[in-house]
Amino acid sequence: MRTNPLKQSTLRRWGPWLALVVVFATITSLLSWWQFARREELVERINEVIANYDKPPIPLADIGFVLEDGKSAQEWRPVTVSGRYLSDLTTLVRNRPLNGQAGFLQLVPFELNDGRVLIVERGWLVAGSDLSPTIDNPLPLTEPKQLVVRLRVSEANLGRPPIPGQISSIDLKTLAERFQSSGEVITDYYGRLVSESPGSETFPTAVPKPSLSEGNHLSYALQWVLFGLMAFGAFIWAIRNDRRIQLEEAGLRAPKTQKRTQALIDAEIEDANQ
């Protein structure tokens, strides 16, 4: 049985292109999956904000905070705590822009009535003109206070070198080592300040509510899927077009009739008038 030489030629010519299309489609599929995964993670965080952010505060002892794989369903939950600030241990979190301005977050350890220490993020401070720590760094008094804070989980350790009085992220384990002489530092969560009583005369700028936008992850994911499908579509069109040309050259198929566009008609008129 003889093998059709036309089929052999087609396989030799288009086999490498098919492999390239498969590789491209695999890459686009992985990128699409990555965008879907990022969207799913973002939606999960948004749902936590929606579920917990505006709930009435309850005492910290009643929260039953559960931490799994660095996440918690109780994140953003408002709670009340009582104790006093350890203002002399105030630390700034660097590289925290807000509304296009460079700045810092102010962290102040708060000694609870039970002796444990809760890290409290009191707000945002604008950086100086040379991106140095701001001169205006209002510190709270050490008098007894009652706070309302929203619980947040620890941030990742960025592995950057320590600077006296500053830290690169709200990594609670690093902060616990820094403040270990002050007592047991809570490392499962910290608090973002909502209010304090009695209040201070001045506060850092309050950090706004996190965005509830999903961003463009879904559209990007669908675009990557479309790119993969387009690659296969272009490959199939190229094979069919190549096969049509080969059949026309072999006299096995009538040449494709060219569509009479206005440009072609104008060209024919010009040729006739010459």
Using the CA coordinates, give the radius of gyration.
32 Å
Round the mean pLDDT to the nearest integer and report it: 85
Shape: elongated
| Poorly predicted runs of 5 or more residues | none
**Strand order within the widest sheet?**
2-4-5-8-6
Residue fraction in strands: 15-25%
The main β sheet shows up as: 5 strands, mixed, barrel
- Kindly name the structural category: alpha/beta
Order of helices and strands: HEEEEEEEHEHH
Number of helices: 4
Distance between the termini: 57 Å
Q: Give the total of domains.
A: 2
Total strand count, please? Answer: 8
- Report helical residue fraction: 25-40%
Question: How would you sum up this structure, described in words?
Answer:
With 274 residues, this protein is of the alpha/beta class. The chain contains four helices and eight strands, in the order H-E-E-E-E-E-E-E-H-E-H-H. It has two domains: 7-53 and 211-253; 57-197, no CATH class. 36% of the residues lie in helices and 19% in strands. It has a five-stranded mixed barrel. Strand 4 and strand 5 form a beta hairpin. The radius of gyration is 32 Å and the shape is elongated.
What is the compact description of this entry?
The chain is α/β, with parallel strands linked by helices and 274 residues long. The protein is built from four helices and eight strands, in the order αβββββββαβαα. α1 packs antiparallel against α3.
